[in-house]
Amino acid sequence: MTTSLSERLSAELSGLRESGLLIHPRVLDAANRARTSVDGKAVINLASNNYLGFADHPALKAKAESYLREWGAGAGAVRTIAGTLRIHEEFEEQLAHFKHTGSALVLQSGFTTNQGVLGTLLREGDLVVSDELNHASIIDGLRLAKATKKVFKHADIADLERVLQENPTDGLKLVVTDGVFSMDGDIAPLDKLVEVARKYGGVTYVDDAHGSGVLGEAGRGTVHHFGFEHADDVIQVGTLSKAWGVVGGYAAGHHDLRQLLINRARPYLFSTAQPPAVVGALSAALELVQSDPSFMERLWDNTKFFKAELERLGFDIMGSQTPITPVLFGETADAFAASRKLFEEGIFAVGLGFPTVPKGKARIRNIVTAEHTREDLEQALRAYEKVGKELGVI
């Protein structure tokens, strides 16, 4: 008997509900800032990726409005037909200059950028070796590729070398890693990864979604942090949301990379170009972070303070090296309970459990931003201390 749509939907939702995995996103009633309103409640926001506080910044809004009025609400077509506006190319030149790369191309999101770039570069006979904790967009992008796919243990240089030794090929060799890992907040050992990749004639591919705007001079990212920004054998991809406060994805690297992606990357070929207001806001973000170093200074001052105080209270922050600051609760039910209790105290911080993170490693992931004040963080720490003691975590 044929399964009806209603039966399928009901069965899937029931399964999620019974396993405790059914998501009901909280709704923001105001702009995404360090202090906002969520489901009608005033809260300190530790759940956002808005690292530099750009999502509601006046400079971004002003340039977005300017581009909207001059260039219209939408681009009107895909880039390869009639959707490439002069401002698209100007921003890509600005981005390549910022990243110190030979070229840059903007796509619709960080997720589709991984699909487009990996799907374009990799062919049958190639070898791609991916860190076991890489983002879901990398995993999905690799599913589209016909290359031989192997995984190395997280940030384990010896295991990477073992995989490369055991899988010789005359094709392209691509070592793929996140720059900053989004669940644990650790930084990839890119200096060692690039060294091993080069030893075997390979190319290093870095998804810098959480490193761009956070690491390196003026937020140029993990690649710049390790000194590889002018290297043609290192490809940078990432998102234009998070630190940049807007939306989109980018690929930056070898001077020929852009042209190949224009011709082959399917998300680029079959998606309408970014709206002018988005381009304007992004251009303003790059200008702002380079002209005013105080954004990154506040981001890191706040990060160091918050981490140190959480550890002083007795919390396990899982070795995080970046503004992504996980607090370990262990079991999924405990992390979710802690999130609810923190919300009651006016702190918006989301619990994460299996399958997003491994069993026994459930946590609340906090992200400190440049916009948080010391008062915000001290209030959050008081709430954490209260909830941690109630749940017996500290």
UniProtKB/TrEMBL annotation:
Belongs to the class-II pyridoxal-phosphate-dependent aminotransferase family. BioF subfamily. Catalyzes the decarboxylative condensation of pimeloyl-[acyl-carrier protein] and L-alanine to produce 8-amino-7-oxononanoate (AON), [acyl-carrier protein], and carbon dioxide. It is an enzyme of class 2 (transferase). Residues 43-383 form the Aminotransferase class I/classII large domain. It comes from Deinococcus xinjiangensis. This is 8-amino-7-ketopelargonate synthase. Homodimer. Keywords: Acyltransferase, Biotin biosynthesis, Ligase, Pyridoxal phosphate, Transferase.
